[in-house]
Amino acid sequence: MTTVTVTGAAGQIGYALLFRIASGAMLGSGTPVRLRLLEVPQAVAAASGVAMELDDCAFPLLESVDVFDDASLAFEGANVALLVGSRPRTADMARADLLAANGAIFGPQGRAINSAASDDIRVLVVGNPANTNALIAASHAPDVPRSRFTAMTRLDHNRAVSQLSQKTGAPVSAISRVTIWGNHSATQYPDVSHALIDGRAPKLDHAWVENEFIPTVARRGTAIIEARGSSSAASAANAAIDHVRDWVHGTPEGDWTSAALPSDSSYGVPEGLVSSFPVTSAGGEWQIVPGLEIDEFSRERIDASAAELADERAAVTELGLI
Ligand SMILES: NC(=O)c1ccc[n+]([C@@H]2O[C@H](COP(=O)([O-])OP(=O)(O)OC[C@H]3O[C@@H](n4cnc5c(N)ncnc54)[C@H](O)[C@@H]3O)[C@@H](O)[C@H]2O)c1
Ligand SMILES: O=C(O)C[C@H](O)C(=O)O
């Protein structure tokens, strides 16, 4: 039995996520699930409607669904927490206001995880700015190992694999060793310098990588918002499922994926920043892939995204949020 807490449960991503968790897509067909949904008071009725629909699916693996507007109840006994609800940026909002508004959400949720969740809690932050929200939550949960707080760059990773597949004509299943470095923002660095297609390094046109591939992946979230009128939901939910499934069940032999984890100073990313790396998972633990050669082109981009994360950390430190 696994207890999964999902925040922002009445939102768009929540609606695309919860039914797949309940069907077994995230934890496997042998793992019964208890869902605990957290929403703000004004969205509890909507979340209860989603809970009614979950009941109506009669999922064999779904043991229970409960809805809360109190974080310390919602995280009680949680083994997995998906922090989706956040305060999105509006046009008139300064960055400090955005960080402060999210500090008011992720600080208390970190404290609730610290006091109420199970000892094996694994946290994935989806709500933006995801990396720094994860840093805030982790800093309010001193009894939980830092490595259990992660932020989602799997959607960027999947976007990168898809773009490479479309460019080369190779199926997605033939592509391995793609990496997203840094922040889930426009400064992220989608890196194909170690990518393999059918186990061999493809010959990619550097101009395409620099001028088309990288900007397309890094700005895909904005392109989706422009096209759909709201941010990616089903693909974000799918990426969250992929992230937790790989964390719990492991990554395939010979490949890696991307996830944002507290840095251990690997690849020159300052310690403690929640930054995306190439990662493998085994035994329920992420490991940063060691020893990759980093050329000058990659170095500049990894450093630029790490610098943005360091700025965000300085801003939340200044605001007293961590
Ligand atoms: N990391 C990624 O790759 C990625 C991708 C897509 C979207 N996102 C982000 O995910 C977040 C959610 O997106 P969405 O489309 O579902 O948004 P949405 O507005 O449809 O839903 C968000 C939900 O969160 C709830 N919420 C707000 N504050 C809360 C709190 N303190 N506790 C519990 N619930 C709370 C809201 O009531 C709302 O129902 C946004 O921040 C979005 O930018 C991240
Ligand atoms: O919500 C956003 O700003 C975009 C989202 O993070 C995405 O990458 O699709």
Automatic annotation (TrEMBL):
- Reaction catalysis annotation: (S)-malate + NAD(+) = oxaloacetate + NADH + H(+)
Q: What is its EC number?
A: 1.1.1.37
**Chain positions recorded as NAD(+) binding sites:** 8-14, 102, 109, 126-128
Task: List the Gene Ontology MF annotations in alphabetical order.
Answer: L-malate dehydrogenase (NAD+) activity
Where do the Lactate/malate dehydrogenase N-terminal domain residues begin and end? 3-142
Name the SUPFAM superfamilies on file. Answer: LDH C-terminal domain-like, NAD(P)-binding Rossmann-fold domains
Q: Where on this chain does substrate bind?
A: 89, 95, 128, 159
| Active site residues according to the UniProt entry | 184
CDD domains to which the protein is assigned, alphabetical: MDH_chloroplast-like
Query: What broad class of enzyme is this?
Result: oxidoreductase
Which residue ranges does the record assign to the Lactate/malate dehydrogenase C-terminal domain? 153-316
GO BP term, example: malate metabolic process
UniProtKB keywords: NAD, Oxidoreductase, Tricarboxylic acid cycle
| Record InterPro entries | L-lactate/malate_DH, Lactate/malate_DH_C, Lactate/malate_DH_N, Lactate_DH/Glyco_Ohase_4_C, Malate_DH_AS, Malate_DH_type2, NAD(P)-bd_dom_sf
Q: Family per UniProt?
A: Belongs to the LDH/MDH superfamily. MDH type 2 family.
Described purpose of this protein according to its UniProt entry: Catalyzes the reversible oxidation of malate to oxaloacetate.
Which protein are we looking at?
Malate dehydrogenase
The source organism is: Marisediminicola antarctica
Recall the taxonomic lineage recorded for the source organism: Bacteria, Bacillati, Actinomycetota, Actinomycetes, Micrococcales
The encoding gene is mdh
